[in-house]
Design goal:
The structure holds two protein chains of two kinds.
Chain A lengths: L2 H22 L6 E7 L9 E6 L9 E12 L4 H9 L11 E7 L5 E4 L10 E11 L6 E2 L4 E2 L5 E4 L3 E4 L11 H23 L8 H16 L3 E4 L8 H17 L6 E5 L2 H17 L11 E3 L4 H15 L3 E5 L5 H11 L3 E6 L5 H7 L2 E4 L1 H11 L2 H31 L5 H8 L4
Parallel strand pairs in A: 11-12, 11-14, 12-13, 14-15, 15-16
Antiparallel strand pairs in A: 1-2, 2-5, 3-4, 3-6, 6-9, 6-10, 7-8
Chain B lengths: L3 H17 L5 H38 L5 H21 L6 H32 L5 H16 L2 H8 L1 H26 L1 H24 L5 H10 L1 H25 L11
Classes of the chains: A alpha/beta, B mainly alpha.
C-alpha cells in the first residue's frame, strides 16, 4: 500500500470517527447534499452546493448558528502535477480536508464555492456541517485563518459527496457576433484573393505613398539623410509591423543612392527588426556595403526622453525627409512641428485617431488610418496583398450597408418590442 | 529553418490568441496570462540589447569625437550614475535613485511635454487660415469649440453686453491684423478675413438664439459628440479592418517583416 493510500485511509477513519462522534452526541446533521456546476461560472472554477436543514431540533443548550462547507480534493496525478508545475501553480496538499467557507444563519441552505482547481486538476469532494453554538454564544469567525473561534461549538456533518468537478464553458455565446463577422470577413478576403489572380485590380493613388520617392530624391540631391520614426509601440503591435513594410521599401529605394536612413528606436526589439529589414533591403538592392548599422540605434523607452533625442537629431542633422509611421501618442505634434521647423519634407502615417489632426496640420502628407495598412500592398503590388486590400474595401462596404440596415431596424425597435430589439442587441459586443 | 520555426510559433501563438478570445474557460485564461508573462520576460531580455546599443552608439561618438559628442558623455555618465545608485542603494521611495528620478528626470519629462502647448499654438496658427472653403469650415468650427471650452464663450451668448465686448475685441484684432494681411494676401482677402472675423460673434449669437438658449459649450459638445465622433468612427472602421487583415497575414505567414524579412 502506498503512502498516499495509507494517508487516505487514515483520513477516512478520522472522518468516520468524527461523524460517529457527532451522531453519538445526538446532534442532527444536514441532509440531501447535492453539488452541481455553477451555471454562471464561465471559467469552470465554481460549484453550487445545496442541502436540507437538519430535521430534528437542536439538543438542549445549543442553537443552530450556521453551516461550514468542507472540501478536499484528490491528490493530483503525476501528469497534472507536471502540468501545474509547468504553469507555476501551487500543487494542492493531497486529500486534506479544509473548510471552504462558513455560511452564517439558518435561512440559507445553498452556497457556491469559487476558485476551485478546474479540469484537468483532480476531483473535488464536499460535506456540509451544521454548526451548533452554546445558547447565547456569538458567531465568531477568524477570516484570516478561516476558522470558527467561538468556544464550545459542535458540528454534525453530512456524508461526503463526490467526486465532482467544475465544468466551465468552452465557448462564449455572447461573442457569436464577433465570430460571425470575422468569418464573413475572412471569406470576403479569400474570395478577393481568388478574383485577384484572374484580373488586375485598381488601387486608388495614395498621395503620401507617391511622395515617398520624391522625398528620397530630395534627400539624395541635398546629400542629407532620411529620418524614420516607427512610433512608440512594440513590434507586437500591428501599426509597427505596417511601418516596417514601408521602411523596407524606403530602404530598397534609398540603397542605390547611398542615402543614409537614420532610425532612432524607443524599443530594443523594434531596433533589431529595423536593422534586419534595412540590412536585407540594402542586400536586395545590391548595396550591402552601404548599410550602416550605427544609424539604427536604441535611444530610450521614455516617451519624452525619446522625443527630446529625436528633436535634437532633427535640428543637428537636418534630415531632408522625415517619416513618422506607426502608432503615436502626445509626442506626435512635438516631433512633426520640430521637423517642420527644420525644413524637412514630412510624411506621416498612423492609425491613432487622436494624433491624426496633429500630423495633418504639420506634415506634408499623412496616411490616415487604414492607408497605413494599405501601404505594404500599394508599394509592393503583390497580388495577395492587393487582394486583401480589396477585401478591406468590400468589408467596409458591408459595414456601411449594415449601418444603414441597423439604423432602420433600431428605429423600428423603438416602437416594436420582441424580435427587433433582440436583433439589435445581438450586434452589441460583450 | 531560420524562417519556418518562427513562422510556426507565430501561427500557433496567433491561433491560440484568436481561439482564446472565444473561450472563457479557466484553461484559456491561464494560458493567456502565461503567454503574457513570457512576453514580459522576452521584453526584459531585449533591454540588454537596447542597453548595449545605447552604450556602443554613444561610446563610438565620443571615441571618434563626432559632432556634439559632449551630449554623449552626459548620456553615458547619467546612465552609469543611475545604474550605480540604483544597484547600491535600491530604488525604494526616499532613496537617492528616486530622488534623482523625481528631481531630475520627471521635471525634464514634464518640460518636454509642456512644449506641446506652444507647438499646438504654432500649428493652429498655420492651419486656421481660411484659404479654402474646407479650411474656413475648420476655422469656424475651431473657433466655436475653443470658445465653448472657456467661460467667455457662454458669457458671450448669455449676456448681450459680453457679446458686444467680444465683438469689439474681434474688431480690434481685425484692425490690427489688416495691414499685415493686406500685405501678405492682398486687400481683397484681408477684407474677406476681417468680415469673416466680425461675423464670428454675430454667428455665435444667431446660433445660440436658434438653439433656444443653449450655451456655446452645448454647441461645442454637439460638435465633439456628433460630427467628430462620426468621422472618428469612420476612420476606426478602416483601421479595424486593416488591422485584422494585417494580423491574418502575420498569422498565416504571408507577412514576414516582423521577422526581419519581407
Amino acid at each position: 500500500m502506498t503512502m498516499m493510500r495509507k494517508a487516505r485511509l487514515v483520513i477516512g477513519i478520522f472522518a468516520a470517527l468524527a461523524t460517529a462522534q457527532s451522531w453519538a452526541a445526538g446532534l442532527p446533521a444536514p441532509t440531501g447534499l447535492s453539488v452541481t456546476p455553477d451555471p454562471e461560472d464561465d471559467e469552470g472554477t465554481a460549484l453550487i452546493l445545496k442541502w436540507t436543514a437538519p430535521e430534528s431540533p437542536p439538543p438542549a443548550g445549543f442553537t443552530l448558528a450556521g453551516y461550514a462547507v468542507e472540501h478536499r480534493q484528490d491528490a493530483p496525478t503525476p501528469a497534472v502535477r507536471l502540468y501545474e508545475k509547468l504553469l507555476g501553480q501551487k500543487v494542492p496538499d493531497p486529500a486534506k480536508t479544509e473548510v471552504a467557507k462558513f455560511v452564517k444563519g439558518t435561512d440559507k441552505t445553498e452556497t457556491n464555492v469559487k476558485n476551485l482547481d478546474p479540469w484537468p486538476s483532480p476531483m473535488h469532494y464536499f460535506s456540509v456541517s451544521a454548526v451548533y453554538l452554546p445558547e447565547g454564544a456569538a458567531w465568531e469567525v477568524d477570516e484570516k485563518a478561516n476558522k470558527l473561534t467561538t468556544k464550545g461549538e459542535q458540528e454534525a456533518a453530512t456524508p461526503e459527496v463526490g467526486p465532482v468537478q467544475p465544468v466551465g464553458k468552452w465557448y462564449n455565446p455572447d461573442r457569436t457576433n464577433v465570430a460571425a463577422t470575422a468569418a464573413i470577413y475572412t471569406i470576403v478576403v479569400i474570395l478577393a484573393l481568388i478574383f485577384a489572380r484572374r484580373r488586375d485590380m485598381y488601387i486608388r493613388p495614395i498621395a503620401g505613398l507617391q511622395a515617398v520617392d520624391d522625398a528620397i530624391g530630395r534627400a539624395t540631391e541635398m546629400g542629407k539623410p532620411l529620418l524614420f520614426v516607427s512610433g512608440l509601440t512594440g513590434i507586437g503591435d500591428v501599426p509597427t509591423i505596417a511601418a516596417m513594410l514601408i521602411l523596407g521599401h524606403l530602404a530598397r529605394r534609398a540603397a542605390p543612392y547611398e542615402t543614409p536612413i537614420l532610425a532612432p528606436c524607443n524599443d530594443p526589439m523594434v531596433m533589431s527588426v529595423t536593422r534586419e529589414i534595412v540590412r536585407e533591403s540594402y542586400t536586395e538592392a545590391g548595396r550591402p556595403d552601404a548599410y550602416q548599422p550605427e544609424n539604427i540605434y536604441f535611444v530610450t523607452d521614455s516617451q519624452f526622453g525619446y522625443v527630446a533625442a529625436v528633436d535634437g537629431l532633427m535640428l543637428r542633422e537636418k534630415p531632408a525627409a522625415n517619416f513618422y509611421m506607426g502608432y503615436f501618442f502626445a509626442e506626435s505634434l512635438i516631433l512633426a512641428e520640430t521637423g517642420n521647423e527644420a525644413g524637412a519634407i514630412q510624411i506621416a502615417g498612423t492609425d491613432a485617431d487622436t494624433q491624426l489632426p496633429f500630423f495633418i496640420t504639420s506634415c506634408d502628407y499623412t496616411l490616415m488610418g487604414e492607408e497605413l495598412y494599405a501601404a505594404g500592398a500599394y508599394l509592393s503590388r503583390d497580388p495577395v496583398l492587393l487582394a486583401q486590400l480589396k477585401g478591406q474595401d468590400i468589408g467596409k462596404a458591408i459595414i456601411g450597408l449594415m449601418l444603414i440596415v441597423s439604423t432602420a431596424i433600431a428605429s423600428i425597435a423603438i416602437f416594436h418590442s420582441g424580435v427587433v430589439p433582440r436583433f439589435v442587441e445581438w450586434f452589441n459586443t460583450k | 529553418m531560420r524562417v519556418h520555426v518562427p513562422i510556426a510559433i507565430c501561427f500557433l501563438a496567433g491561433l491560440f490568441m484568436l481561439v482564446q478570445f472565444f473561450v472563457p474557460h479557466h484553461l484559456g485564461v491561464v494560458y493567456y496570462e502565461e503567454l503574457q508573462a513570457w512576453t514580459r520576460i522576452v521584453i526584459a531580455f531585449t533591454m540588454v540589447l537596447g542597453i548595449s546599443s545605447l552604450i556602443r552608439t554613444h561610446w563610438e561618438k565620443i571615441r571618434r569625437r563626432r559632432q556634439d559628442w559632449g551630449y554623449s558623455v552626459v548620456t553615458l555618465v547619467s546612465f552609469i550614475a543611475m545604474v550605480t545608485i540604483g544597484a547600491a542603494r535600491g530604488s525604494e521611495k526616499g532613496s537617492p535613485f528616486m530622488w534623482a528620478f523625481d528631481s531630475v528626470f520627471n521635471p525634464l519629462d514634464a518640460t518636454m511635454f509642456s512644449l506641446l502647448a506652444f507647438f499646438m499654438a504654432s500649428a493652429a496658427y498655420r492651419t486656421f487660415r481660411a484659404r479654402t472653403p474646407e479650411a474656413t469650415v475648420l476655422l469656424l468650427t475651431a473657433v466655436i469649440v475653443m470658445l465653448g471650452r472657456v467661460p467667455l464663450g457662454d458669457m458671450m451668448v448669455q449676456h448681450g453686453a459680453y457679446g458686444i465686448w467680444a465683438g469689439l475685441l474681434f474688431l480690434c484684432i481685425a484692425w490690427a491684423a489688416f495691414p499685415w494681411c493686406a500685405a501678405r494676401f492682398g486687400r481683397g482677402t484681408a477684407w474677406a478675413l476681417g468680415v469673416a472675423l466680425m461675423l464670428v460673434p454675430v454667428a455665435l449669437l444667431v446660433v445660440s438664439a436658434h438653439l433656444r438658449g443653449m450655451p456655446i459649450s452645448g454647441a461645442t459638445e454637439w460638435i465633439m459628440n456628433t460630427p467628430a465622433v462620426g468621422a472618428k468612427r469612420g476612420i476606426l472602421f478602416g483601421v479595424a479592418l486593416g488591422s485584422i487583415a494585417t494580423s491574418l497575414r502575420i498569422i498565416f505567414g504571408i507577412e514576414r517583416s516582423h521577422l526581419g524579412g519581407h
